[in-house]
Structure formats: C-alpha cells, structure tokens
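Technical annex, item 7. During the second reporting period the consortium partners agreed on a shared format for inverse folding records so that results from different sites could be compared directly. Each record opens with the tokenized structure and is followed by the designed sequence. A conforming record, contributed by the partner at site C, is shown below for reference.
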C-alpha cells in the first residue's frame, strides 16, 4: 500500500500544477472573458473620470501654487541681488578706506603716495571685523621703499628762497622813485628852484 500511496501522490501533484496555471491565466488576463473585460473597462472609465474631475478641481490650486512659487523665486532673486550689491558696496568702501590709510601713511616718505596704494594688495590689511592693520602697512611701505627707492621723496632739507638779483631796483640799473637817494635829489632840486 505504501507504493500505491506514493504513486497516487505523484499523480496528484501533476494534476494540481496543470490546474493552477489556468486559474492564474484567468485572473491575470481579464480580457479573455468579454463580460469580465466589459466590467474592467467600466471600472477603469469611472476611475479615469474621477481623476479628470479631481485634476480639474486641483488645476486652479496648482496654478496659484506655481504663481506663489514664482513670486517667491523673484523675491528671493531680488533679495539675492540686493545682498550682492550691498556686499560689493561694502567691499568698495573698505578698499577706499584702506587706500586712504596707505596714502596717508605714505605721504611722509613717498613722492607720490598713490604709487604706494597702487603697488600694495589692499585686501590683506583688513581683518574680518573691518579693522585696518596700520603696522602691517608701515612695514610693507618700508619694504616697498627699499625695493623702489626712486619712489621716495628727494632729500632736500629745509628749503629757503634764493634771491633773484634781477628783481628790484638795483638789479637792472634803474632805481625806483622811492629810492632815498632819488628822493633827496628831488628834494634838493625843488628847493633850489624855488
């Protein structure tokens, strides 16, 4: 009996395998039966109609959301441009302040202080807080004068005016009427004439 039972079990297994694919085909392919296909089509049409209705209802909301997003983008872009302009303006003001400081410190030793300001990298003299490092500027100005001594002021000492002998009464031989000798001569000639 045990052999018969095994044979029956072996025979039953193939039968189950054959019926299982038919059930799967029927469930997986609703289009094979026209009645099932018609019901499936109706179900899909109702679903599609409800989605179209929802899409029409949500379309104005989507449009408003897009407008708000665009407005937000333009506001963000405007703020970004404003921030960039403010940063550029602040950087320019810092460069101007540093250049003025360099020129002021260079005025004592340089013939043209603008040369010194143009030759140095002005950005290195400002820290993150906007404080200008005057000592670093002085060191670099001294180094610059060492490298380019022709930019320095000429060592003239104190200037005194030089006399110009061609100016005045004695230089060209003509005496002015305010000369004491000519005034005395004029006085004597008037007194003698009488």
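Designed sequence (site C submission):
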């Amino acid at each position: 009996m045990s052999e018969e039972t095994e044979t029956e079990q072996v025979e039953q297994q193939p039968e189950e395998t054959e019926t299982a694919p038919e059930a799967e085909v029927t469930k997986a392919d609703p289009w094979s039966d026209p009645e099932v296909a018609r019901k499936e089509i109706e179900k899909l049409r109702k679903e599609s109609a409800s989605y179209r209705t929802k899409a029409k209802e949500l379309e104005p909301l989507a449009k408003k959301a897009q407008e708000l997003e665009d407005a937000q983008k333009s506001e963000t872009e405007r703020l970004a441009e404003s921030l960039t302009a403010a940063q550029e303006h602040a950087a320019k003001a810092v460069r101007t302040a540093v250049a003025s400081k360099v020129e002021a410190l260079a005025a004592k030793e340089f013939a043209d202080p603008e040369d010194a300001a143009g030759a140095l990298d002005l950005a290195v003299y400002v820290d993150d807080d906007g404080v200008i490092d005057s000592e670093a500027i002085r060191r670099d100005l001294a180094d610059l004068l060492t490298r380019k001594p022709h930019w320095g002021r000429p060592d003239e000492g104190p200037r005194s005016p030089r006399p110009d002998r061609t100016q005045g009464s004695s230089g060209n031989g003509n005496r002015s009427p305010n000369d004491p000798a000519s005034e005395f001569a004029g006085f004597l000639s008037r007194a003698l004439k009488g």
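The radius of gyration is 53 Å. The chain has five helices and no strands. All partners now use this format for quarterly exchanges.
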